[in-house]
Amino acid sequence: MKFFGIVAATVLAFAPGLVAARTPAELNLACRAPGQSVDEAGYVRIGGIQQWVVVEGRDCANPVVLIVHGGPGNPNTPFAHTVFGDWAKDFTVVHWDQRGAGKTYQASPPAEGEALTIERLAADGVEVARYATQRLGKRKVILMGGSWGSALSVTMAQAEPDLFHAYVGTAQMVRYHDNLAASYARTIGLARAAGDAETIGKLEALGAPPWTNPRAFGILRRATRKYEALATDAPPRDWFQPTPGYDTPAYEAAYEAGEDYSFVQFVGMAGDGMGPRLDLRKLGTRFAMPVFMLQGDQDLVTVPEISRAYFDSLAAPEKAFFPLARTGHDPNRTMIDTQLRVLETRVRAAAVAADKP
Questions:
Q1: What span, in angstroms and rounded, lies between the C-alpha atoms of 323 and 189?
Q2: What are phi and psi of 226, to 5 degrees?
Q3: What letter does residue 236 receive in the DSSP assignment?
Q4: H-only helix segments in 73-166
Q5: How many CB atoms lie within 10 A of CB 44?
Q6: At 25, is the pLDDT very low, low, confident or very high (cuts 50, 70, 90)?
Q7: Among the residues of 268-303, which ranges form H helices?
Q8: DSSP for 27-92?
């Protein structure tokens, strides 16, 4: 299974089961008292279609974290309990498979010729956030995203700032063309320094971006993974074994179909997809909530200089930037542990206080 694509994985704890599709207005509270746990997964009607939403927490008094997955097309619910199960102790974690991805793709495949847009996905995300507040009895949620999920999260945060306690981003995308040009330059530079004729040949054959060939991004991404692996700490080997319910041939087929669909929607068949249109600076640089960004020092996809420059331009009630040593674009223990530490030390107390009646 090609589970990672271009994602910087940031996901929630897995919970089995299925709930019927319904609108937020029809929901009953899942959390009725402090100390109560919540553990549910199923389809909810979001944006007019059935979308897969998972919720897990050990104490309903805890604040809610909404995780926005990357890719696009790479939901990490198959591995969530293994990677993030410990988060349920201090947070109620919510995740949804975005339109065109995973179990959402399986239940609600796009119509022939249907295009994804970041505006449509952000509207879905805002609706999921509202669903979470209503279902879990909270005023707001904490918003967290990585890679593609960081771009989508910023779009959501700027669209509906009153829904979010804080934004925590990892491997922050900023402007597609800037990110891609820096990624290409850094990676081919490493290949030349290493005398890696095979990689040099592949990248020189592409030429510097922008590109119209939809395969070009994948060729570069394989090269970035190769060089990141030489300078980063690998994740535990057992992290990415699919949890029961996500290990069937039918799900694997749906996952890969959704991944392929979403990737083409991202790059476009002629360099005209969601990615090439992406420039977060056009949304403005003022945030109504605290902003915390984490950045791998060896990230060759969203290179640190671009993420840091964007962070430095932001105005927010509070902000902090956290470099991650020996970390690339994809998750490892340093990334996951630092995400949790930031949530616990910089976000949790304020979110608990703000959620009180």
A1: 22
A2: -60, -45
A3: P
A4: 80-84, 102-107, 118-136, 148-159
A5: 23
A6: very low
A7: none
A8: PPPS--STT--EEEEEEEEETTEEEEEEEEES-TTSPEEEEE--TTT---GGGHHHHHGGGGGT-E
Q: Which two tokens stand for residue 288?
A: 């109504």
> Given a cut of 90, is residue 13 above it in pLDDT?
no
Burial of 349 per CB tally in 10 Å (0-12, 13-18, 19+)? exposed
Read off the DSSP letter of residue 160: -
- Amino acid letter, residue 247: D
Q: What is the chain's length? A: 357
Count of H-run helices and E-run strands, the chain = 11, 8
Residue from 128, 144, 133, 140 nearest 76 by CA: 144
- Exposed e or buried b for every residue in 117-149, given b needs 16+ CB within 10 A? ebebbbbbbbbbbebbbbbbbbebbbbbbbbbb
9-35 burial by CB neighbour count: b if 16+ within 10 A, else e? bbbbbbbeeeeebeebeeeeebbeeee
pLDDT level of residue 84 (50, 70, 90 thresholds):
confident
Element (H, E) at 12: none
For residue range 29-68, what is the model confidence (pLDDT) as tens digits? 898 888 999 999 999 999 999 999 999 999 999 999 999 9
Residue 295: its H or E element: strand 291-296
Cα separation, 314 vs 150, in Å, equals 15
What would the DSSP string read from start to end of 168-231? EEES---BHHHHHHHHHHHHHHHHHHHT-HHHHHHHHHH-SSP-S-TTHHHHHHHHHHHHHHTT
What sign does the CA torsion over 225, 233, 346, 74 have?
Answer: positive
Nearest Cα to Cα of residue 292 among 329, 338, 332: 338
| Paired sense of beta strands 49-57 and 38-46, if any | antiparallel
Which tokens go with 105? 């793709």
Q: What is the pLDDT of residues 213-250, one digit of tens each?
A: 999 999 999 999 999 999 999 999 999 889 999 999 99
Strands 64-68, 141-146: pairing kind: parallel
CB count in 10 Å sphere of residue 281: 11
